[in-house]
Amino acid sequence: MQWISWVKSLTFLRHEDGELEETLPFRHELARIIRRLQPRVLMTHDPWARYRIHPDHRAVGFTALAAIVEAGNQMIRGDEPAWKVDEVFLFQSDQPDHGEDITDTVDLKVAAICAHTSQSHFGEATKERVYTWAQAAGPKYGYQLAEEFKHLVPRH
Length: 156
Hints:
Layout: H1 24-37, E1 41-45, H2 55-72, E2 87-91, E3 98-101, H3 106-115, H4 124-137, E4 146-152
Helix pairs in contact: 1-2, 3-4
């Protein structure tokens, strides 16, 4: 399974970096997007990861998970019909249980990270960090390089 073939669109919400919070309006915004796009899979930060205290990452993780519940709830009316996400993959988890082979796409991943304005100054350090993590994860799943996730199947 190649992640790259799953991505059909990209939406920027234009929230300020460093100012995200777990709020009801943010949850409603994400739920509307889920209903509109009808994704089968949702990927987000693992908000429960121990010692990962970045406030934006935690806010996005918790809000995205709450939004899939809202999006799938037929009792909550909206402009779009309710939509239930089939699978959730939490990245940067300290309890991963799923690995994806990124051997052929790791350079694309590094390029994407470096294209992110707030990350571009890390350059070579980013590449080194990504390769180190991928090399450590790969053998656990039978790959040369792997990306690890916590896999969840929502119970709606």
